[in-house]
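Good morning C.,

I know you're traveling, so I'll keep this short. The sequence:
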Amino acid sequence: MPAHAVLGAQWGDEGKGKVVDFLSGHADVVARFSGGNNAGHTVMNEQGKFALHLIPSGIFWPQTVSVIGNGAVVDPDTLLREVTDLERRGVELKGRLLISERAHIIMPYHIMLDRLQESAKGSRAIGTTGRGIGPAYSDKASRSGLRAADLLDLRALKPRLKVILEHNNTIITRVYGGEPLSLDEVYSKCVTWANRLAPFFGRVERLIHERLAKGQVVLLEGAQGALLDLDHGTYPFVTSSNPTIGGACVGLGIHPKQITGVIGVFKAYCTRVGSGPFPTELKNEVGERIRHLAQEFGATTGRPRRVGWFDAVAARYSTQVNGYTSVVLTRLDVLDGFHPIKICTAYELDGERVTDLPGGTAEFERCRPVYEEHPGWDKPTASVTNHKDLPEGARSYVERLQELIGAPIDIISTGPKRHETITVRPVI
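The C-alpha coordinates, ready to paste straight into the viewer:
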Protein backbone atom coordinates (compact mmCIF):
# COMPACT_ATOMS: atom_id res chain seq x y z
CA MET A 1 0.00 0.00 0.00
CA PRO A 2 2.27 2.77 -1.30
CA ALA A 3 1.44 5.97 0.57
CA HIS A 4 4.34 8.41 0.93
CA ALA A 5 4.18 11.49 3.15
CA VAL A 6 6.03 14.73 2.34
CA LEU A 7 6.45 16.78 5.51
CA GLY A 8 7.95 20.13 6.33
CA ALA A 9 10.76 19.29 8.73
CA GLN A 10 11.51 22.75 10.17
CA TRP A 11 9.29 25.82 10.74
CA GLY A 12 7.58 25.61 7.35
CA ASP A 13 8.48 27.31 4.06
CA GLU A 14 11.01 24.58 3.24
CA GLY A 15 10.02 24.37 -0.43
CA LYS A 16 7.45 21.57 -0.18
CA GLY A 17 5.49 22.95 -3.13
CA LYS A 18 8.35 22.30 -5.56
CA VAL A 19 9.08 18.92 -3.94
CA VAL A 20 5.47 17.71 -4.11
CA ASP A 21 5.15 18.94 -7.70
CA PHE A 22 8.37 17.08 -8.61
CA LEU A 23 7.32 13.82 -6.91
CA SER A 24 3.73 13.98 -8.18
CA GLY A 25 4.93 12.82 -11.57
CA HIS A 26 5.05 9.35 -9.97
CA ALA A 27 1.76 9.66 -8.04
CA ASP A 28 -1.88 8.82 -8.72
CA VAL A 29 -3.36 10.78 -5.79
CA VAL A 30 -1.97 13.82 -3.96
CA ALA A 31 -3.69 14.45 -0.63
CA ARG A 32 -3.49 17.49 1.66
CA PHE A 33 -4.19 16.49 5.28
CA SER A 34 -3.85 19.54 7.57
CA GLY A 35 -3.88 23.30 7.88
CA GLY A 36 -5.70 25.85 5.78
CA ASN A 37 -4.91 28.80 3.58
CA ASN A 38 -2.32 29.94 6.13
CA ALA A 39 0.03 27.72 4.10
CA GLY A 40 1.52 28.77 0.79
CA HIS A 41 3.15 26.44 -1.72
CA THR A 42 4.93 28.02 -4.69
CA VAL A 43 5.23 25.90 -7.83
CA MET A 44 7.13 26.74 -11.02
CA ASN A 45 6.67 24.50 -14.05
CA GLU A 46 6.10 24.63 -17.79
CA GLN A 47 2.70 26.25 -17.22
CA GLY A 48 4.13 29.15 -15.23
CA LYS A 49 4.48 30.20 -11.59
CA PHE A 50 1.67 29.38 -9.17
CA ALA A 51 1.07 30.21 -5.50
CA LEU A 52 -1.28 27.64 -3.99
CA HIS A 53 -2.83 27.87 -0.53
CA LEU A 54 -5.33 25.01 -0.41
CA ILE A 55 -5.23 22.93 -3.59
CA PRO A 56 -2.43 20.32 -3.49
CA SER A 57 0.67 20.95 -5.58
CA GLY A 58 0.09 17.73 -7.54
CA ILE A 59 -2.77 19.32 -9.46
CA PHE A 60 -0.45 20.13 -12.40
CA TRP A 61 0.11 16.48 -13.36
CA PRO A 62 -2.83 15.29 -15.51
CA GLN A 63 -2.82 11.71 -14.16
CA THR A 64 -3.30 12.78 -10.53
CA VAL A 65 -6.39 13.33 -8.42
CA SER A 66 -5.88 16.06 -5.80
CA VAL A 67 -7.78 15.80 -2.54
CA ILE A 68 -8.20 17.92 0.58
CA GLY A 69 -8.75 15.78 3.65
CA ASN A 70 -10.89 16.09 6.74
CA GLY A 71 -7.92 17.36 8.76
CA ALA A 72 -7.75 20.59 6.75
CA VAL A 73 -9.92 23.67 7.22
CA VAL A 74 -11.25 25.29 4.05
CA ASP A 75 -11.86 28.95 3.32
CA PRO A 76 -14.39 28.70 0.46
CA ASP A 77 -13.58 32.18 -0.90
CA THR A 78 -9.88 31.33 -1.15
CA LEU A 79 -10.69 27.96 -2.69
CA LEU A 80 -12.93 29.53 -5.31
CA ARG A 81 -10.22 32.03 -6.24
CA GLU A 82 -7.72 29.21 -6.68
CA VAL A 83 -10.16 27.14 -8.74
CA THR A 84 -10.96 30.13 -10.97
CA ASP A 85 -7.28 31.01 -11.46
CA LEU A 86 -6.22 27.46 -12.28
CA GLU A 87 -9.06 26.94 -14.75
CA ARG A 88 -8.32 30.31 -16.37
CA ARG A 89 -4.73 29.20 -16.86
CA GLY A 90 -5.70 25.93 -18.47
CA VAL A 91 -5.48 23.48 -15.54
CA GLU A 92 -8.31 20.95 -15.78
CA LEU A 93 -10.05 20.38 -12.41
CA LYS A 94 -13.21 18.50 -13.36
CA GLY A 95 -12.99 15.02 -11.86
CA ARG A 96 -9.51 15.81 -10.47
CA LEU A 97 -10.27 17.73 -7.27
CA LEU A 98 -12.10 16.26 -4.29
CA ILE A 99 -12.68 17.91 -0.89
CA SER A 100 -13.67 15.84 2.12
CA GLU A 101 -17.23 16.41 3.21
CA ARG A 102 -15.83 16.19 6.76
CA ALA A 103 -13.44 19.15 6.29
CA HIS A 104 -14.38 22.14 8.44
CA ILE A 105 -15.29 25.46 6.88
CA ILE A 106 -13.62 28.77 7.80
CA MET A 107 -16.48 31.19 8.34
CA PRO A 108 -16.39 35.02 8.20
CA TYR A 109 -16.61 35.23 12.01
CA HIS A 110 -13.50 33.03 12.30
CA ILE A 111 -11.48 35.53 10.28
CA MET A 112 -12.82 38.47 12.28
CA LEU A 113 -12.11 36.76 15.60
CA ASP A 114 -8.59 35.79 14.54
CA ARG A 115 -7.68 39.40 13.77
CA LEU A 116 -9.39 40.82 16.85
CA GLN A 117 -7.68 38.31 19.13
CA GLU A 118 -4.23 38.97 17.66
CA SER A 119 -4.72 42.72 17.93
CA ALA A 120 -5.80 42.43 21.57
CA LYS A 121 -2.60 40.53 22.46
CA GLY A 122 -0.42 43.45 21.42
CA SER A 123 3.26 42.62 21.94
CA ARG A 124 2.30 39.07 22.98
CA ALA A 125 0.77 38.30 19.57
CA ILE A 126 1.68 34.90 18.14
CA GLY A 127 1.97 36.19 14.57
CA THR A 128 -0.90 34.34 12.93
CA THR A 129 -1.79 35.01 9.31
CA GLY A 130 -5.21 36.37 10.35
CA ARG A 131 -6.94 33.86 8.06
CA GLY A 132 -9.28 32.42 10.71
CA ILE A 133 -7.43 29.11 11.02
CA GLY A 134 -7.12 29.02 14.82
CA PRO A 135 -10.76 29.95 15.55
CA ALA A 136 -11.96 27.38 12.98
CA TYR A 137 -9.99 24.61 14.70
CA SER A 138 -11.21 25.90 18.09
CA ASP A 139 -14.81 25.52 16.93
CA LYS A 140 -13.99 22.06 15.63
CA ALA A 141 -12.65 21.03 19.04
CA SER A 142 -15.60 22.58 20.86
CA ARG A 143 -18.02 20.77 18.51
CA SER A 144 -19.54 23.98 17.20
CA GLY A 145 -17.95 23.99 13.76
CA LEU A 146 -19.51 23.63 10.33
CA ARG A 147 -18.27 21.06 7.83
CA ALA A 148 -18.43 20.90 4.04
CA ALA A 149 -21.30 18.42 4.31
CA ASP A 150 -23.35 21.06 6.13
CA LEU A 151 -23.29 23.27 3.04
CA LEU A 152 -25.07 20.49 1.15
CA ASP A 153 -28.14 20.75 3.39
CA LEU A 154 -28.94 24.46 3.50
CA ARG A 155 -32.36 23.99 5.11
CA ALA A 156 -30.78 22.32 8.14
CA LEU A 157 -27.85 24.73 8.13
CA LYS A 158 -29.68 28.01 8.75
CA PRO A 159 -31.04 27.32 12.27
CA ARG A 160 -27.64 25.93 13.33
CA LEU A 161 -25.88 28.94 11.86
CA LYS A 162 -28.24 31.28 13.74
CA VAL A 163 -27.24 29.80 17.12
CA ILE A 164 -23.53 29.69 16.29
CA LEU A 165 -23.51 33.26 14.96
CA GLU A 166 -25.34 34.63 18.01
CA HIS A 167 -22.62 33.13 20.23
CA ASN A 168 -19.76 34.48 18.11
CA ASN A 169 -21.35 37.92 17.73
CA THR A 170 -21.53 38.15 21.51
CA ILE A 171 -17.78 37.58 21.73
CA ILE A 172 -17.04 39.93 18.84
CA THR A 173 -19.07 42.80 20.28
CA ARG A 174 -18.78 42.42 24.08
CA VAL A 175 -15.21 41.15 24.41
CA TYR A 176 -13.49 42.91 21.50
CA GLY A 177 -15.83 45.80 20.69
CA GLY A 178 -16.23 44.73 17.07
CA GLU A 179 -19.23 44.97 14.75
CA PRO A 180 -21.66 42.01 14.66
CA LEU A 181 -22.10 39.97 11.50
CA SER A 182 -25.46 39.67 9.78
CA LEU A 183 -27.08 36.23 9.71
CA ASP A 184 -28.61 36.89 6.28
CA GLU A 185 -25.27 37.97 4.81
CA VAL A 186 -23.35 35.00 6.21
CA TYR A 187 -26.08 32.57 5.14
CA SER A 188 -26.09 34.12 1.65
CA LYS A 189 -22.36 33.39 1.39
CA CYS A 190 -23.05 29.78 2.38
CA VAL A 191 -25.60 29.48 -0.42
CA THR A 192 -23.08 30.84 -2.95
CA TRP A 193 -20.40 28.44 -1.69
CA ALA A 194 -22.77 25.49 -1.86
CA ASN A 195 -23.83 26.27 -5.42
CA ARG A 196 -20.27 26.56 -6.70
CA LEU A 197 -18.39 24.02 -4.61
CA ALA A 198 -20.86 21.14 -4.20
CA PRO A 199 -19.37 19.23 -7.19
CA PHE A 200 -16.01 19.11 -5.42
CA PHE A 201 -17.29 17.72 -2.08
CA GLY A 202 -17.17 13.97 -1.51
CA ARG A 203 -15.84 11.00 0.44
CA VAL A 204 -12.10 11.40 0.36
CA GLU A 205 -11.45 8.47 2.70
CA ARG A 206 -13.19 6.03 0.38
CA LEU A 207 -11.27 7.27 -2.66
CA ILE A 208 -7.89 6.98 -0.94
CA HIS A 209 -8.58 3.49 0.41
CA GLU A 210 -9.79 2.31 -2.99
CA ARG A 211 -6.68 3.66 -4.70
CA LEU A 212 -4.34 2.17 -2.11
CA ALA A 213 -6.08 -1.20 -2.44
CA LYS A 214 -5.29 -1.10 -6.17
CA GLY A 215 -1.62 -0.46 -5.41
CA GLN A 216 -1.68 3.12 -6.67
CA VAL A 217 0.75 5.70 -5.29
CA VAL A 218 -0.74 8.23 -2.89
CA LEU A 219 1.37 11.25 -1.96
CA LEU A 220 0.44 12.87 1.36
CA GLU A 221 1.14 16.61 1.19
CA GLY A 222 2.04 18.31 4.46
CA ALA A 223 1.56 22.00 5.20
CA GLN A 224 3.60 24.17 7.59
CA GLY A 225 6.40 22.32 9.41
CA ALA A 226 7.04 19.87 12.23
CA LEU A 227 8.26 22.57 14.61
CA LEU A 228 4.91 24.35 14.22
CA ASP A 229 2.94 21.24 15.26
CA LEU A 230 0.26 21.98 17.87
CA ASP A 231 1.60 19.25 20.18
CA HIS A 232 5.25 18.84 19.21
CA GLY A 233 6.18 22.33 18.08
CA THR A 234 7.41 25.45 19.90
CA TYR A 235 4.09 26.01 21.69
CA PRO A 236 2.32 28.47 21.84
CA PHE A 237 4.04 29.82 18.71
CA VAL A 238 2.61 27.03 16.57
CA THR A 239 -0.13 26.36 14.06
CA SER A 240 -3.52 24.95 15.05
CA SER A 241 -3.18 21.47 13.54
CA ASN A 242 -0.73 18.56 13.35
CA PRO A 243 1.63 18.79 10.34
CA THR A 244 3.63 15.84 11.72
CA ILE A 245 3.17 12.27 10.49
CA GLY A 246 0.39 11.47 12.97
CA GLY A 247 -1.68 14.24 11.41
CA ALA A 248 -1.53 12.46 8.06
CA CYS A 249 -3.39 9.46 9.49
CA VAL A 250 -5.98 11.51 11.38
CA GLY A 251 -6.39 14.08 8.60
CA LEU A 252 -7.11 11.55 5.84
CA GLY A 253 -8.59 8.54 7.63
CA ILE A 254 -5.74 6.16 6.81
CA HIS A 255 -3.76 3.95 9.19
CA PRO A 256 0.00 3.87 9.86
CA LYS A 257 0.57 0.56 8.07
CA GLN A 258 -0.50 2.20 4.82
CA ILE A 259 2.39 4.69 4.94
CA THR A 260 5.56 3.20 3.48
CA GLY A 261 7.72 6.32 3.31
CA VAL A 262 8.09 9.57 5.27
CA ILE A 263 10.00 12.26 3.37
CA GLY A 264 11.25 15.21 5.40
CA VAL A 265 11.93 18.47 3.57
CA PHE A 266 14.73 20.59 5.06
CA LYS A 267 16.21 23.85 3.87
CA ALA A 268 20.01 24.06 3.82
CA TYR A 269 19.50 26.82 6.41
CA CYS A 270 16.50 27.75 8.60
CA THR A 271 13.68 30.26 8.34
CA ARG A 272 10.73 31.13 10.50
CA VAL A 273 7.71 33.43 10.09
CA GLY A 274 6.07 35.11 13.06
CA SER A 275 7.02 35.09 16.71
CA GLY A 276 8.65 32.36 18.77
CA PRO A 277 12.10 31.08 19.74
CA PHE A 278 14.67 30.78 16.94
CA PRO A 279 18.16 30.15 18.38
CA THR A 280 20.13 30.42 15.12
CA GLU A 281 18.45 33.60 13.86
CA LEU A 282 20.83 35.92 12.01
CA LYS A 283 20.03 39.55 12.80
CA ASN A 284 22.90 40.87 10.70
CA GLU A 285 24.04 41.42 7.13
CA VAL A 286 24.46 37.66 6.57
CA GLY A 287 20.80 37.08 7.38
CA GLU A 288 19.78 40.00 5.15
CA ARG A 289 21.91 38.64 2.31
CA ILE A 290 20.33 35.18 2.54
CA ARG A 291 16.83 36.68 2.78
CA HIS A 292 17.22 38.74 -0.37
CA LEU A 293 19.11 36.11 -2.37
CA ALA A 294 16.42 33.53 -1.60
CA GLN A 295 13.51 35.99 -1.63
CA GLU A 296 12.46 34.79 1.78
CA PHE A 297 9.07 36.43 1.96
CA GLY A 298 5.89 34.52 2.82
CA ALA A 299 3.86 33.16 -0.11
CA THR A 300 0.68 33.74 1.90
CA THR A 301 1.39 36.98 3.77
CA GLY A 302 4.38 38.53 2.01
CA ARG A 303 6.02 39.00 5.41
CA PRO A 304 9.83 38.80 5.52
CA ARG A 305 10.95 35.48 6.99
CA ARG A 306 13.43 35.34 9.83
CA VAL A 307 16.63 33.64 8.65
CA GLY A 308 19.22 31.55 10.51
CA TRP A 309 21.86 28.86 10.14
CA PHE A 310 20.86 25.18 10.04
CA ASP A 311 19.72 23.94 13.46
CA ALA A 312 20.71 20.29 13.87
CA VAL A 313 19.22 20.07 17.39
CA ALA A 314 15.79 20.89 15.97
CA ALA A 315 16.45 18.61 12.97
CA ARG A 316 17.18 15.59 15.17
CA TYR A 317 14.00 16.23 17.15
CA SER A 318 12.00 16.52 13.92
CA THR A 319 13.40 13.17 12.76
CA GLN A 320 12.61 11.58 16.12
CA VAL A 321 8.96 12.67 15.95
CA ASN A 322 8.39 11.77 12.28
CA GLY A 323 10.75 8.87 11.51
CA TYR A 324 11.97 10.16 8.15
CA THR A 325 12.92 7.44 5.72
CA SER A 326 14.27 10.02 3.24
CA VAL A 327 15.24 13.68 3.26
CA VAL A 328 14.94 16.33 0.56
CA LEU A 329 17.38 19.21 0.98
CA THR A 330 16.29 22.47 -0.65
CA ARG A 331 17.88 25.86 -1.30
CA LEU A 332 21.44 24.55 -1.29
CA ASP A 333 22.23 26.99 -4.09
CA VAL A 334 21.41 29.96 -1.83
CA LEU A 335 24.58 29.24 0.17
CA ASP A 336 26.86 29.50 -2.88
CA GLY A 337 29.68 31.91 -2.04
CA PHE A 338 29.21 32.01 1.74
CA HIS A 339 32.36 31.58 3.88
CA PRO A 340 32.17 30.03 6.42
CA ILE A 341 28.86 28.20 6.77
CA LYS A 342 27.73 27.36 10.29
CA ILE A 343 25.69 24.49 11.73
CA CYS A 344 24.18 24.58 15.21
CA THR A 345 24.99 21.19 16.82
CA ALA A 346 23.96 21.97 20.42
CA TYR A 347 22.56 24.71 22.64
CA GLU A 348 23.98 26.44 25.66
CA LEU A 349 21.22 26.76 28.27
CA ASP A 350 21.97 28.52 31.56
CA GLY A 351 25.65 27.61 31.28
CA GLU A 352 25.09 23.97 30.31
CA ARG A 353 25.42 22.28 26.93
CA VAL A 354 22.17 20.60 25.81
CA THR A 355 21.36 18.57 22.72
CA ASP A 356 17.59 18.18 23.20
CA LEU A 357 14.86 20.61 22.22
CA PRO A 358 13.40 22.22 25.39
CA GLY A 359 9.67 21.71 25.93
CA GLY A 360 9.06 25.12 27.46
CA THR A 361 9.15 28.40 25.57
CA ALA A 362 10.93 30.30 28.35
CA GLU A 363 13.75 27.74 28.36
CA PHE A 364 13.95 27.70 24.58
CA GLU A 365 14.21 31.50 24.44
CA ARG A 366 17.31 31.30 26.67
CA CYS A 367 19.09 28.80 24.41
CA ARG A 368 22.18 30.01 22.58
CA PRO A 369 23.54 28.12 19.57
CA VAL A 370 26.77 26.15 19.70
CA TYR A 371 28.20 26.18 16.19
CA GLU A 372 30.61 24.17 14.12
CA GLU A 373 32.00 25.88 11.04
CA HIS A 374 32.31 24.47 7.52
CA PRO A 375 34.20 25.93 4.60
CA GLY A 376 31.93 27.22 1.90
CA TRP A 377 32.27 26.85 -1.86
CA ASP A 378 32.59 29.27 -4.75
CA LYS A 379 31.60 27.08 -7.68
CA PRO A 380 27.82 27.52 -8.21
CA THR A 381 25.41 24.72 -7.34
CA ALA A 382 22.42 26.47 -8.91
CA SER A 383 20.68 24.27 -11.51
CA VAL A 384 23.09 21.34 -10.99
CA THR A 385 21.30 18.03 -11.71
CA ASN A 386 24.08 15.50 -11.03
CA HIS A 387 25.48 14.84 -7.57
CA LYS A 388 29.04 14.43 -8.86
CA ASP A 389 28.93 17.97 -10.27
CA LEU A 390 28.53 19.54 -6.83
CA PRO A 391 31.65 21.29 -5.54
CA GLU A 392 33.56 19.48 -2.82
CA GLY A 393 32.50 21.95 -0.12
CA ALA A 394 28.83 21.48 -0.96
CA ARG A 395 29.12 17.67 -0.94
CA SER A 396 30.88 17.80 2.41
CA TYR A 397 28.17 20.07 3.83
CA VAL A 398 25.38 17.78 2.60
CA GLU A 399 27.12 14.73 4.08
CA ARG A 400 27.45 16.44 7.46
CA LEU A 401 23.77 17.47 7.45
CA GLN A 402 22.79 13.90 6.58
CA GLU A 403 24.79 12.62 9.54
CA LEU A 404 23.24 15.14 11.92
CA ILE A 405 19.65 14.70 10.68
CA GLY A 406 19.87 10.92 10.98
CA ALA A 407 18.24 10.09 7.64
CA PRO A 408 19.56 9.83 4.06
CA ILE A 409 19.46 12.93 1.87
CA ASP A 410 18.08 11.37 -1.30
CA ILE A 411 17.07 14.50 -3.23
CA ILE A 412 18.72 17.92 -3.43
CA SER A 413 16.92 20.90 -4.90
CA THR A 414 19.21 23.38 -6.66
CA GLY A 415 16.58 25.81 -7.92
CA PRO A 416 12.83 26.48 -8.01
CA LYS A 417 12.07 24.65 -11.28
CA ARG A 418 11.26 20.94 -11.61
CA HIS A 419 14.40 20.01 -13.49
CA GLU A 420 16.70 21.82 -11.05
CA THR A 421 16.91 18.71 -8.91
CA ILE A 422 19.50 16.08 -8.01
CA THR A 423 18.08 12.61 -7.37
CA VAL A 424 20.62 10.62 -5.40
CA ARG A 425 18.15 7.77 -4.84
CA PRO A 426 14.47 7.53 -5.87
CA VAL A 427 12.12 8.01 -2.90
CA ILE A 428 8.95 6.73 -4.62
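Safe travels,
E.
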